[in-house]
Amino acid sequence: MKQLLLHPVNWKDYSLVDSGDGKKLERFGNYLFSRPEPQALWSPKLPIKEWEKSSGIFLSSSNPLNEDATGKWSLKKHLPPKWEMQYDNIKFFATPTPFRHLGFFPDQSPHWLWASKKIHSFLKTQGKNYSPKVLNLFGYSGLASLHAASHGASVTHIDASKKAINFAFENRNLSSFQDLPIKFITDDAIKFVKREIRRENKYDGIILDPPKYGRGPNGEKWDFFNDLPILLKLITQILTPEPIFIILNSYAIRSSHLTLYFALNETMKKYSGKVESGELCIVEDQEDPRQINTAIFARWEQQVI
After folding, report:
1. Distance of alpha carbon 260 from alpha carbon 274, whole angstroms
2. Closest to 184 (Cα-Cα) out of 160, 208, 215, 201
């Protein structure tokens, strides 16, 4: 089994500038940010004066090398509350959040590009009279949904957080995608899929990026290792007879890509297709760059004959 290492490419508004001493220095638009990075066991290449140009530093409240540590941002006064970013044909806002990140995940962009290729291939064979239906569970700020819809899919975007859904609306409006077929719904993922089973609604593609732990809009509890197997069994009941793709991505779990590979392989065993898996990585923007793993993934695609 081959392990894939996927890296974000063709970004003008994001780069990993440097890393080391348990931190990473990243550029988001015109601003630099320093965040904890437990995997950066090496020394920074750039002098400290470059790191001191950061507009924001995330300060962990406990051990900064603990990936679950909470904390807060120390932000320079010149930094706006949010600012515009762009990738491919989508626009979106960046903003520092209490969860260390900036409201989106640039390392996910290889999945967006891969899904768009699958959508284009589907449209070539099926014709443009039918838009493939894509379900984005745990959709957060909506970039995967916007990208898929802009490439011809009809998207249903689900997130348990009203704040995340509002953020997705803002990104949709910034991209001027109000007329694209995207439904934004605040709901618990498992409850939504169960209702779709009863309604007999089907999807051609599904994107899943579940958290380690989470809460639904009505206090429902999500635990990755307990609830993902349940969800995977359910989604096979909302797939069309010949689905296009499934993307399963995960951050911050103590496991390898093999866990997701075998789980998704079992889920899709009755379909003619293949599963591949690996890691998402970010790469320093300098000579002899180091790489940092950010997430693990598995994805299934329909077997093309």
Report:
1. 13
2. 160
